[in-house]
Amino acid sequence: MDIRETHLEYSLIGSHLVIANIANLGLKHTDRVAIVYKHDEEKHKHASTVAANRGGNIQYFKDNIENAQKWLLKFYEYQESIINKNKRMWDSSLTLGMTEY
Questions:
Q1: Higher pLDDT residue, 95 or 55?
Q2: Which residue in 3, 18, 61, 92 has its CB near the most CB atoms, within 10 A?
Q3: How far apart are CA 51 and CA 20, in angstroms?
Q4: What are 38-70's pLDDT values in tens digits?
Q5: What are the phi and psi torsion angles at 60 (to 5°)?
Q6: Is 93 or 16 the better-scoring residue by pLDDT?
Q7: Rounded to an integer, what distance in angstroms lies between the CA atom of residue 94 and that of residue 59?
């Protein structure tokens, strides 16, 4: 989420409430969100701490969209490797099962 041109109109407590109520935005605990910001650093750092304390997959990046993209891609590449590993294990078990008959 690129909010570099946004100025937050709420207090520090507001940034806490946004994260505390993240499910109301339609996000699940398993979703990963990268937020790129330019302004209101104190509020974003506070929100980042709240997210980490609640086990959320929300990461904040100050004016660096490339690092945000790398962070997101690393997660999806890891997920893809797990899927591929499980698929190979499944294919191997099917092959072994077929040769026994």
A1: 55
A2: 61
A3: 8
A4: 998 888 888 888 888 887 788 899 988 999 999
A5: -110, 140
A6: 16
A7: 40
